[in-house]
Amino acid sequence: MIVNSVIILPSECRxxxxxxxxxSFTRHGVFNPSKSVILMERDVETEHMAPVxxxxxxxxxxxxxxxxxxxxxxxxxxxSAPSEYKILIKE
Amino acid sequence: MLRPKHWTVHxxxxxxxxxxxIVAEQTEQTLIGGSGVGWKLAAERLPAGVDPxxxxxxxxxxxxxxxxxxxxGTPKTTVITKYPTFASEDGRFYVGASTxxxxxxxxxxxxxxxxxxxxxxxxxxxxxxRIRDDSIQLVDAEDLWGQGIQHVTNQLVRxxxxxxxxxxxxxxxxxxxxxxxxxxxxxxxxxxxxxxxxMGSKNLKAIAVNGTRDIELARPLAYFDFAQELRxxxxxxxxxxxxxxxxxxxGWDTFKHTQYPGIWAKDEWDELYGxxxxxxxxxxxxxxxxCIVSCRLKWQIKGGExxxxxxxGSPFSKSAxxxxxxxxxxxxxxxxxxxxxxxxTGLDFYTTTRIIDFATLMYEMGNLSKEDTGGxxxxxxxxxxxxxxxxxxxxxxxxxxxxxxWFRLKNEFDLDPQDYRYSGFCKGMDFIYxxxxxxxHPLMMSFFTRPRPHHGGSHTRTNSRNKTLEEIREQVExxxxxxKTIDRIFTETxxxxxxxxxxxxxxxxxxxxxxNSLGLCSIFSYQGLIFGNDLAQLYSAASGEDLTxxxxxxxGERISNLAKLIxxxxxxxxxxxxxxxxxxxxxxxxxxxxxxxxxFNTKVIGKEDAEKILDDYYDERGWxxxxxxxxxxxxxxxxxxxxxxDALVKTAG
Lengths: 91, 653
Known about the structure:
Chain A is an alpha+beta fold. Chain A has helices at residues 18-28, 66-70, and strands spanning 5-8, 38-43, 48-53, 76-79, 88-89. In chain A, β2 (38-43) and β3 (48-53) form a beta hairpin. Chain B is globular. In chain B, the strands form six sheets. Chain B has a six-stranded mixed β-sheet, with helices on both faces. Classes of the chains: A alpha+beta, B alpha+beta.
């Protein structure tokens, strides 16, 4: 089975949280980061942020992830390479 | 769905009591929501004549209605308070609004159901305010008092969680320095003119917010679809790539002309503070929430005595002008001061560096003696400036005089701030731009027409000097103004040039009230990316109440009048909206003589011209032109009779 994966590129993230808002809206029809399946990892010393997807909760929006479409900075990508269902976290 | 409900939450620091009430639907129907409603709360609950440092002064915090809705450029929160900057020689103070963006603060307030957070009273000992949805507590902050902003922010995020929104004051705020501001989410400054000191007077070190509620919209799908359309429009903006690369470090090519202090040659300034130094120093460009452009900066100093130092915020423009004024040629030394102001003291960099420059000039001219300064020699060197900066933050010696601001220098040593060589001055505050290199565009005018002499997010297409009349007109048409109003704005006059700056400014300010109530960042309005009719469409979907751009800006006008009324009850009139004297003294620079000119650079603007432009501003507002305050007829037309000056004074007892 071919299933897309979401690849996160933490170094590209600027912390705008568009992914969280798009996720909650797509899943629940509301804007609410705490209802998204994405947490923001925040290094408080450097203030660098990056999204972390809770893999068990994410269904990749049926193959066309809203978070990837909403990311303005190319920090989240869809990989169409054949793979098992998984979310790769790539440094 | 029905119109979403919003809440006013009142926290009294003296008693610890918290009260909540729903905002009446009719209030939002007349004043939009967000800071529009915040101004009504100020009119009803902020006593006239209150001292800014008295427990009865209020801090009213209003996240924009659109904050947290995936709409491009909508992170803004507006805070209304009475500012402690002396706004007149006789010791009056203005009630004003400041705005800021952020990644967490505004969205967390909206999610916690704090659309209007009112803080009153004074805590018996230092506290921070912890908000977790309905749980609101005052938490002991003895361990944080005396600590810098960055350290405190880090502590709060570790304690409260990674998505905590923070608003923190520094040591200057604790010490009641009258220009001190606070820092939101580490990157965003808020409230030059003294919000930091107001918080300090209340023993309130910080606010830390988390919320988990939905941000409700009446017609979510319609809202979402249009917000997506706006995102596509911003993605297609040709200059987006440049902004993404440099954020607020971009724009030197314009800045070096419009904010030129006229002391060094431009080529030399370019070499010392230009784009090359910015590119060397920027580490990351950071976005506020929902922003697809991004402008906030993380920087690192390379080389010199501050090698490796990291800072957060936006250091370049302010350090470039102040560097020239103070004669500091190493940009890294100036950026170090910005970093310290943002990370530790919370001093407002503009006022701090300019008042140091002014005092030094007066010392050089013999108008200020060593006896006046408590034995300190005011030398024109960086070490002396740094010492004064530290003394201001701590209120030590002569630093305590500077910490009280421009009118303390006037009253104590007869040094007139109108004589300061750069920027211009009104109601106790220096402006961030000077009209001579910038030209007299509407933003310049708003510095003295607004109750608080700062732009407050007024930016429109006329900010840059290179916009055509067609581009300016396109934006005004999208504000939904009647044709006869548009015709008045674009009627050429001998004193204002091809468009009427006074009449334009009135509507620009009303639009600013709309943007601030909704949370739209002014970058999106001045770059011509989001217009008034777009905001009306979003608002209709958000509230379920269909309204046009023209109806929207009328509500902005109502908010502008309310803001003016609150200040009129404390005696502010046209006499206080004084056009700065320095703008009419030519700047003698190595590039030649620079005079205040009209927007299209066709003529010199004299003092009489500026007064006529101001006449037109009040006339366009339908106000008493002689006194610069709303007329009874105007108040009646706007449904604000209940807030007339007499009624407000009576309310205040």
